[in-house]
Amino acid sequence: MDGPEGSWRKAGHTIGFLEEARFQGLAVDADNAKNKAAWDAKMDYHTWGGVVNFIPQFGDAAQRGVDVLTSQWLEDETSKIDDGLARDNRDSSIDRERRVEALANIWLQANPNHGDHETQAVVISRINGTVGDGRDTAHGLAGKGS
116 burial class (0-12, 13-18, 19+ CB within 10 angstroms)? Predict the structure, then answer.
């Protein structure tokens, strides 16, 4: 990886590695939030279900109502968490695109005589390849990911 191309190869690999680490961190955060929401729903169900079950003649129906409400709340909460994760992943991808473009521009300015075929689009494409390699490396180390 020596020479002028070595710098963008290393930088691209690092960007990809860190991006995958971020995706994995976001997934863990979402899983934790879902686990907390599931726990909260269970506690609400058992707390309120136990209370309404003692209502004469309507306890069983009221408990089913509590079940429906807590299930719907958990479904809504899970959907919000998934939407937040998708938004965070999208923001991370946009951030990567900006970093790759900036890296390509810096490299092109620092290496004006590297060749006429080195347009911004070509350099961005090549860097994106190393970004993918970096993500694969991080993904393989963790054993899971985005």
Answer: exposed
Question: Could you tell me if 131 and 100 are in contact, meaning their C-beta atoms sit under 8 angstroms apart?
Answer: yes
Supply angle C-alpha 136, 2, 111, rounded to 5: 100
| H helices present in the chain, as ranges | 4-52, 59-110, 120-142
CA 18 to CA 26: how far, in whole Å?
A: 12
| Residue 47 pLDDT > 90 | no
Q: Are 144 and 18 in contact (CB under 8 A)?
A: no
| Res 119: pLDDT | 87
Tell me the C-alpha to C-alpha distance, in Å, between residue 107 and each of 25, 124, 143: 30, 10, 33
Which pLDDT score, from 0 to 100, does residue 116 have? 62
Region 25-43: mean pLDDT is 94
